[in-house]
Amino acid sequence: MGKNRSFKEYIANRFNDEFWRIAEEYINDNTREFDKDFKKIHRLGNIEITDVKVEQVKVEDLPGTKVQFDVSVSIWVEIQDGDYHYDETEESIKWIKLQCKGDLGNNLDDFEICSVQSYNGKSNIENSTDDSLVPYIKKDMMDKVANDFLERYYPEALKIPTDNELPIKVDPMKLAENMGLNVLVHRIKKDSSIFGQIYFEKQETEMYDEDSDTYIPMVINEKTIVVDPENYFLRNLGSVNNTIVHECVHWDKHYKAFLLERLYNRSASNISCEIVGGAETGISEKTTEFMEFQANQLAPRIQMPAGPFKVKANQYIVRFMRETSASHPIEVMETVIRALERDFGVSRQAAKIRLVELGFEDAVGTFNYIDGHYVKPYSFRKNVLKDNQTYSISVIDAAIQSITNPELYKNIRDGSYVYVDSHFVLNHPLFLYEDEYNHVQLTEYARHHMDQCCLVFNLSISGKVKKAYHSECYLNRDENSSINFEIAFSGEFDDTQKKKYLNDMLTETGRVLESLPNNFPGAMKACMEWRGFTQRKLASETGISERTIGRILNGENQPTLVNVVLICFGLKLPPQISRFLLQKSSHNITYSKQDEALYDFALTYLYTKPISEIREFLYENGGLAI
Asked: Fewer C-beta neighbours within 10 Å, C or N terminus of the chain?
């Protein structure tokens, strides 16, 4: 792990003699400042400096390698009593501000103190950096900083396209050339854990050679970006482009932090960016994370500058809605994202994330993959979801949350919410319907109004990937994402809305329950009539033989637990009715047994799904085979 490099500490140690000299001159020139407010002594006498401390250094980020900085210095003095009748002394502290400058490219050998004045607690420093010389950039200033970057290195990319024009794509190779950087495509690590490096100094190193399957010595010149070609196969062109731009940002924004590291450690040469979104440097973990956050935030903004990107997105939405007669932007948003992905040379997820950042919230509900399945696009009311919230969770996360979260369990146990297409959805005809295959689907209204019918879950990132990875990680849920998330129910329920929509459904369920005979064969037959099932259709749905179903209906066979569960799944019975059938069959769910607990979860929340998907869920999570 790298060490914490402090510019303040370096300045204080290296130029300590200079600060003492300035302090002595200041005291000699300003002795009258001490001729007042005495507490112990009677008259000003000899003044002796006992210590000089550098208390604070504020650095201005000038172009190139130059820095201008204010050094706040405290001067500790001991004042002797000027009246010889007394042998008293008194301590005092004076603060001064030194305006300094120097060139890190010259190792600060040209350090100069430009002015000295009494310190009043204020500084005129602008474009400041932290103590590691990483610039301070507020998140709401990222677009402005990205535009400034493009104005210096690639101004044509800021041109606003007309309706019939394509935006000017940032060619990462040309960008590197404009910045005086070289791009070398070469394997870096055998495991492809590092996707890019930026070399600030010429360095002898070793890199992986595929032909010999060994690491070979190489000399990498300064101002060189190394990109691992394996990324072209493991990822996509948009990600490779982002990698090069990412390293260009490191050169432009973090060269001074590297030069500070060089003042401490002459062997430092590069920053290596890892595939999981972190970086390897000789600098402290905190500073490295700060630099990675900035590069991750700025790179997509440079590739997709706000002005051209927003204009083109709006142009595409209008055009595609007109061409397809769409009634809502969500219907064309995936086509819009594909077009922006192509136009700006970025990955699909980067285009999606950028749209959301710029206020196109409909993009949140696009290109999501849960449990390896594509989740159909959806939209919701603006500003309803926080950055770390979602309506979409995996089936195993749904099972865990429903079992372990008492508040969630209490509110959805009655079957008022159903797990459909990776969402917990209010069980009401306005939001759910059965297709021609008797599979329950979300209605168009539900997909356009998810905030009215779905439960909200909080996401947190687990594992090695840092939160700063590639802008907003929480949107990066495509089929190729390697990010792992932890899920927690948000605790948000709208009881008024729930009562409004569920009254009809709960009344119908109650009516059926009250009409069921008090024995299993009779209740099963009544449920089949209610759902419109023949013995043949039920046999086809469940895999239970038609003969066995007939014998159960006639009371000749006592059904097994598995057969009862299969019958409930085949008929897609609400959980209250399934529990009634289980009770009348003399079978009870034992919650201490994992497989039976999974039955209960599936009967409660997955009963609308095809039996094939329920079987897959039970098999993958240790349930009994059905």
From this structure: N
